[in-house]
């Protein structure tokens, strides 16, 4: 069954979301880039505020894959108590092999990591298994450039289906995101990714993901997820 993830950038947004019960609340600062990080202290407070009412994830920030800072950043983010730490990877995951292997000890210590690759950067899914070998828990497809061209403008349903199947074959949780709209939900749910991720569609201005969350938009996404899941599970 597919879950839904909602990205937030501050504690006020969490209060707005919790009533609608997303399965995962994801912490990131969109002003700092597609995987912009929130301050560690904010993430710590956010995790405490949520109090295990849903799962949580957090981006570590936009770092080049050869940055020596990645290991430390993952360690620090995991120490906030967040369930999953999200790390951006290049489209050709093979290029990140050294970075992935260096993170393996963190996986062995129980840190749950999710690798993020970008649909608008011509991703090569054939290296997905390397993420599994590094002990990651999941892989997520997102878009690097946030504009009118969402996930389905870059990859076909058949390519996305292939991605979800490959992830499943190496026991990785799979997530799909990238300026998803409410209309994308019935198209993507049949692929049975583990979750669909949203930010833009939850905001008062869907074209500005830095704008505040709109409670009505949040409710509409929640209802669309529920109704479409009911249809596909019949
Ligand atoms: O992790 C998911 C992303 O925050 C989705 O954001 P977006 O809907 O603005 O592309």
Describe how the helices and strands are arranged.
Layout: E1 3-8, H1 11-18, E2 24-27, H2 40-50, E3 55-59, H3 70-78, E4 84-88, H4 97-108, E5 113-118, H5 128-133, E6 138-142, H6 151-154, H7 157-169, E7 173-176, H8 185-188, E8 195-198, H9 215-233
Parallel strand pairs: 1-2, 1-8, 2-3, 3-4, 4-5, 5-6, 6-7, 7-8
The protein binds glyceraldehyde-3-phosphate (G3H).
Please describe the structure with a list of short key phrases separated by commas or semicolons.
234 residues; alpha/beta; TIM Barrel; 9 helices; 37% helix; 17% strand; globular; schiff base; lyase; EC 4.2.3.153; 4HFCP_synth; (5-formylfuran-3-yl)methyl phosphate synthase
- How far the N terminus sits from the C terminus, by CA atoms, comes to 12 Å
Task: Write down the Rg.
Answer: 16 Å
User: What's the CATH H-level superfamily name?
Assistant: Aldolase class I
Helix content: 25-40%
Strand/helix succession: EHEHEHEHEHEHHEHEH
Structural class: alpha/beta
Could you explain the architecture of this structure?
With 234 residues, this protein is an alpha/beta fold. It has a single domain (3-233), classed as Aldolase class I (TIM Barrel, Alpha-Beta Barrel). 37% of the residues lie in helices and 17% in strands. The chain has an 8-stranded parallel beta barrel with strand order 1-2-3-4-5-6-7-8, surrounded by 4 helices. Helix 3 (70-78) runs parallel beside helix 4. The chain is globular and about 45 Å long. The chain binds glyceraldehyde-3-phosphate. Glyceraldehyde-3-phosphate binds at residues 5, 7, 26, 142-143, 146, 177-180, 197-201, 209. Glyceraldehyde-3-phosphate binds next to strand 1 and strand 8. It holds the Pfam family 4HFCP_synth. It is an enzyme of class 4 (lyase). It catalyses: 2 D-glyceraldehyde 3-phosphate = 4-(hydroxymethyl)-2-furancarboxaldehyde phosphate + phosphate + 2 H2O.
């Amino acid at each position: 069954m597919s879950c839904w993830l909602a990205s937030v950038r501050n504690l006020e947004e969490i209060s707005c979301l919790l009533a609608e019960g997303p399965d995962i609340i994801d912490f990131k600062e969109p002003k700092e880039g597609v995987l912009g990080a929130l301050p560690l202290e904010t993430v710590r407070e956010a995790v405490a505020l949520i109090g295990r009412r849903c799962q949580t994830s957090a981006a570590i920030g936009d770092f080049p894959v050869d940055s020596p800072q990645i290991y430390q950043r993952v360690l620090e983010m995991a120490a906030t108590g967040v369930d999953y730490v999200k790390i951006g990877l290049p489209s050709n995951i093979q290029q990140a092999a050294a970075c992935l292997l260096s993170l393996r000890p963190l996986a062995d210590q129980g840190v749950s990591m999710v690798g993020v690759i970008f649909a608008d950067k011509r991703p090569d899914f054939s290296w997905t298994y390397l993420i599994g070998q590094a002990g990651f828990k999941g892989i997520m497809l997102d878009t690097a450039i946030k504009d009118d061209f969402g996930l389905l403008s870059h990859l076909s349903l058949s390519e996305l289906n292939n991605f979800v199947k490959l992830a499943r074959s190496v026991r990785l949780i799979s997530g799909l995101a990238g300026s998803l709209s409410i209309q994308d939900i019935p198209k993507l749910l049949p692929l049975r990714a583990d979750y669909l991720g949203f930010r833009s569609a939850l905001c008062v201005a869907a074209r500005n993901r830095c704008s505040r969350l709109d409670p009505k938009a949040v409710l509409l996404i929640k209802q669309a997820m529920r109704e479409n899941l009911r249809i596909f599970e019949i």
